[in-house]
Amino acid sequence: MKYLGFLLLLLLTGYTLFAQNESAMLKGRVTDENNIPLEFVSVSVKGETQGTKTSIDGQFVLMVSANRTVQIVFTYVGFESKIINKRIENGETYNLTVSINRNTRQKDGVTITDKSKRNEAGNIAINPKKYYEMDSTVQGIEGLLKIFLSNNNELTSQYNVRGGNFDENLVYINDFEVYRPFLVRSGQQEGLSIINPDLVSGVNFSTGGFQSKYGDKMSSVLDITYKRPKEFAGSVSLSMLGLAAHLEGTAVRKRLSYMVGARQKSNQYLLQSQQTKGVYNPTFTDIQAYLNYQFDTDWQVDVFANYARNRFDFQPENSTQSFGLINKAFQLRMFYDGAETDKFDSRYGGVSVTHTPNPKTTLKLIASGFQTRESETYDILGEYLLGELETDLGKENFGDVKYALGTGVIHNYARNYLNVNVGNIAHKGFYDAGKHFLLWGLNA
């Protein structure tokens, strides 16, 4: 009987060892939705202890139990977890390619790098692709700058740097100095930024102590680089605030590269939620084109053109504002009659010729012109009633005006017209002397 028990124990132990050896190999690769490999993705079997992580090229190898269905779990910070059910036979090697999606509920920060221009003082390089990952009412690259600059209005693309005013910031697009409307007083009047995000390849921002090559000493410089496409492409985007479309490509045996973009914006839905109620009808439209023609390795020409048409019509009706303390609060009610009509039409054109006589020297001649026709007209009559609110929670009329303090009339009237023509001719030179880099320029 003793030998029979020992034999039975030996058989059970052998069966257990045989069962434990029933395993299979799972190999594969993990990528994101853009087919970019992901490193350090956790790959494990649900309910079991074995697991591994992906390598720098997204590859992984994992031993799993064979002859039964197992749940393979893929987890990665910032991405949605994924579970795949798989049954693999004993001794089999199975290859698996997995794609996991970014968690849209998490918002990435803006990555600020300083690699391409690390030797330039005060320069900050910003990835323009982050623009498409941000939630912003500003349909422009300037929305990226507001993360680390002063701004108190979500409707405007303007910004303040080191206490300076919003109109003290220089903006360049491929060395062309660009301008904004002059009579714009508030964010609700402001149209589209002249910078079209669909055409941008690089963004460099300098605050305060920027280099002398930018000329005027202002609060900051926003230096935009537009793309030079290598193949045909395009995009269309649509939202509650407007639409945008662009085309890019090459022609003439790829000597000519072109980009054309058109945008339309209306922030009517946002303005209707403001404190002043009324009929808002803003429409902002712009068309933009950028061309580059390469004659040979020494000569090339760039052409930049932009047309913007901005309209803002407003018929205010009423507004209510409460202020004061908990035990002594007031209310100001306004009733309006009249309207405001603003028109901003601007045109910009520029041509630059670049000559490279040798690999170390670059000479550039730039000619540009800017024209704007602006009108700001309003005739609005407002009657106001100032009253003290009931702050006693025990009263039936709590929160209502218990008595009036005064009434009055306000009349806002303006007929502002502005026509501006700006011409600019500039020369820029660059010489690379190895350890030193020489720049010079002349502007008129």
- Average pLDDT for all residues: 82
| Largest sheet report | 9 strands, antiparallel
In which range does the helix fraction lie? under 10%
C-alpha Rg, in Å? 32 Å
Distance between the termini: 112 Å
Kindly give the count of domains.
Answer: 2
Counting DSSP H or I runs of 4 or more residues, the number of helices is 3
- Beta percentage is over 45%
Structural category is mainly beta
In the sheet with the most strands, the strands line up as 14-15-16-17-18-19-20-21-22
Instruction: Tell me the number of strands.
Output: 22
Spell the H/E element sequence.
HEEEEEEEEEHEEEEEEEHEEEEEE
pLDDT < 50 runs, ≥5 residues? 1-20, 113-119
Shape: flat
Write the SSE topology.
Layout: H1 2-20, E1 23-31, E2 42-45, E3 51-53, E4 59-65, E5 69-75, E6 82-87, E7 93-99, E8 112-113, E9 123-126, H2 142-145, E10 169-173, E11 176-177, E12 200-207, E13 220-226, E14 233-239, E15 242-251, E16 256-265, H3 268-271, E17 276-294, E18 299-324, E19 329-358, E20 361-389, E21 401-432, E22 437-443
Parallel strand pairs: 1-7, 10-13
Antiparallel strand pairs: 1-4, 2-3, 2-5, 5-6, 8-9, 9-12, 10-11, 12-13, 14-15, 15-16, 16-17, 17-18, 18-19, 19-20, 20-21, 21-22
Description:
- The protein has 444 residues and is mainly beta.
- It has 2 domains: 19-99, Immunoglobulin-like (Sandwich), CATH 2.60.40; 112-443, no CATH class.
- Helix content is 6%, strand content 54%.
- It has 3 helices and 22 strands.
- A 9-stranded antiparallel beta sheet has the order 14-15-16-17-18-19-20-21-22, with no helix packed on it.
- It is flat and about 90 Å long.
- It starts with a helix and ends with a strand.
- Residues 1-20 and 113-119 have low confidence and may be disordered.
